[in-house]
Amino acid sequence: MQLSAESRDILRQYKTLIDGRRAAAGLSPVTTAQVVDSMCEYMICQCAVYLAGQFILQGGQGMPPE
Known about the structure:
Blueprint: H1 5-24, H2 32-44, E1 48-51, E2 54-57
Antiparallel strand pairs: 1-2
């Protein structure tokens, strides 16, 4: 997967924040892949998301016909 420098920097910032809080709680650090997986899991729990210039309603609404 190729990410822009800006996206890599954003992921690095979130990972640093998460790892700091996990360390304070006595937990091990996470990988970047775990952060991305967690972001994806969070998005599917939302009623709608805006990605790549598209507003997507969850549950199949707002999806183009197949």
